[in-house]
Amino acid sequence: MSQKQADNKPISHIGGAVKKFAGVLVSAALCAAVAIYITMVCSYDIAVRVNINGAPVGYVESQDDIAGVKTQLLAIVEEATEGQYIPKLDVSYDFVHTNDADYLTASEYGELLWSQIEDDFCMAYMLYVDDHQTAACMDGEALHELISDIEAELLASGGASFEEVRVTNELRIENQLCLKAMVRSIEEINSLINPLAEVEAAAEPDADEASDVDSIMRISAFTAAAPGSADSAAYIDPNVDYGLNREREQAYDPVLDYNFVNTVTVNEVISFKTQYIDDFDNFIGNEKVTCEGVDGEKTVTYEIIYDADGSIVARNAISESIITPAVDKIVMVGAVEIPDAVPTGTFIWPCEAPKGVSSYYGWRDLYGKRDFHLGIDIPDDLGSSIWASDGGTVTWAGTTPSYGKSVRIAHANGYSTLYAHLNEILVEVGDEVYQKQTIGTMGKTGVAYGVHLHFEVRINDVTVNPMKYLPKAD
C-alpha cells in the first residue's frame, strides 16, 4: 500500500458514514411528515357544504337539519304571488373535510335563501278582485278611498234615477308580501279597475321604456341568482327568464262590474190557500166547504236591481208587513169507503141541521089556514148537501108544482123517503143509492117559504112522523 492510499482510506470511511446519516435523516423527516399529515386528517370533520345558485354559503352536519326550509319559502312565495313568480333557487351539496365548520341553522339557511330574491319583494297593500291579485299600493288608506270614490262616481253616472250603486265583484285589500312589479300608483289602479276611467295613451309606458324596465329587473333577478358582478351586460340573456314573470296573463277582467239599485214599497194581495181535510163522517166523493177563503193584503218592499244600461235584471223582496191576513178555504173531503147501495133498515138525518127543525110533522097553522104537514122542514144554506137517509132505489126524480124539484127513494119492507124543494137533483130514476149518498142540494123550489128541505118518511105510501125514525139530534 502506498502512502497516498493509506492517507485516503479514513476520508472514504467518513464520507460513507455521512451518506448513511443523511439517509436516516431523510427517512425520519418523511415519517414525521406522514405522521403530521395523518394527525391533521384525522382531526378534520366531514361536513355537508351547501351551495345556492352555485355559490357556497355554509355547512350543515346533515341535510336533514335544513330539510323543508326551501319548500316552506317556495310556498310563501307561491301564495304571495299567486304563482306568478318562480324564484331561481338551485341548491346543491358537497361533502368536505373541515376542522372549523360554522354550521348553519335552519333559520339562517332560510335567510340566505330569502336574500337571493328579497330585492323583488316589498310589503304593500294588495287589491284582490274576485279573489285575483289585481294591483298593489303602498298606501292602504288611499286604496280604500279609491274604492269609495269609484262607487260615488258610478252612482253619479246614473243621474238622479238611482238610489244606490253596488259593485258586484268581491273586493278585499290585504297588507302582505307583494312583488314590486305589482305595485302601482292610485291613478294607475283607477285606470285599471274603474269602468268609467278613460285610459290615455300617455299613461302607458312606451316600448323603449318598458324594455329598459324589463332589463333592469332582469339584471336584478340575475344578480340574485348567479355569482359575479352584474355590471357586465354579458351576464344578461334577453331570451332567459331568470324567475320573475312580469307579463302576467290575466284570465279575468279587472274592471269592476256594478249595478244600480232602487227600492220601492207596494201593497199586494195575499191569495188565500185551500186546505183539504179528510172527513171521516162522509163518504169518498162528498165534499163540503166549511170556510170560504178570503184574500189578505200586505205591504212589500222590493229591491230593484238595474245593469249599467238601466235595464232591470232582478226584483227581490227584502221586507214585508201584513196588513190583513188571508183566511184559508177549508174543504172537508169524504174519506169513508162507499158502502153497497142496499137498505140498512135504519134512517139517518138527510142533511145537516145546524138551524134545527123549523116545522114538524102534523097539524099546523100556515098563511092563515090550518093544514096537516106531511113531513118535517130542515132549513140550511142554499146549495148545502142533501143525502139519502137510507140505501135504496130512486123511484122519482123530477119537479111538481108544490114540491118543486124532488126525489123519492124506495127502501126495504115498504118504506120510502121523499126530499122536496131541492135546488139541484143529482140522481136519476133507477139509480141504486147508498145511505148518505148525495142526491141533491138544498133550495126553495115549488111552494116554499124559504130555503129548506121538506123530508117525509112513508110506509106503504102512507106518511109517518119522521122524528120517530131519525136518531136524536145532538
What does this entry look like structurally?
Mean pLDDT is 84; it is low at 37-42, 199-204 and 209-250. The chain starts with a helix and ends in a 10-residue tail after the last strand. The chain folds into five domains: 12-43; 47-116, no CATH class; 122-235, no CATH class; 264-333, Single Sheet (Resuscitation-promoting factor rpfb fold); 339-468, Glucose Permease (Domain IIA) (Distorted Sandwich). It is 23% helix and 36% strand. The protein is of the alpha+beta class and 474 residues long. The strands form six sheets. Strands 16, 17, 18, 19, 20, 21, 22, 23 and 24 form a nine-stranded antiparallel beta sheet that branches. The protein has six helices and 24 strands.
Provide a quick synopsis of the model.
By secondary structure, the protein is an alpha+beta fold. Helices cover 23% and strands 36% of the residues.
List the domain count as a whole number. Answer: 5
Give me the CATH architecture of the largest domain, please: Distorted Sandwich
Looking at the structure, what is the overall shape? elongated
Give the end-to-end Cα distance, rounded to a whole number of Å. 179 Å
One letter per element, helices H and strands E, the order comes to HEEHEHEEHEEHHEEEEEEEEEEEEEEEEE
Number of strands: 24
Whole-number mean pLDDT: 84
Count of alpha and pi helical runs: 6
Low-pLDDT residue spans:
37-42, 199-204, 209-250
Binned, the helix content reads 10-25%
Strand content bin: 35-45%
Please compute the radius of gyration using only Cα atoms: 55 Å
Main beta sheet, described?
Answer: 9 strands, antiparallel
What kind of assembly state do the chains in view correspond to?
single chain
Kindly report the CATH topology of the largest domain. Glucose Permease (Domain IIA)
For the record, what CATH class of the largest domain applies?
A: Mainly Beta
- Look at the helices and sheets and give the structural class: alpha+beta
Q: Name the CATH superfamily classification of the largest domain.
A: Glucose Permease (Domain IIA)
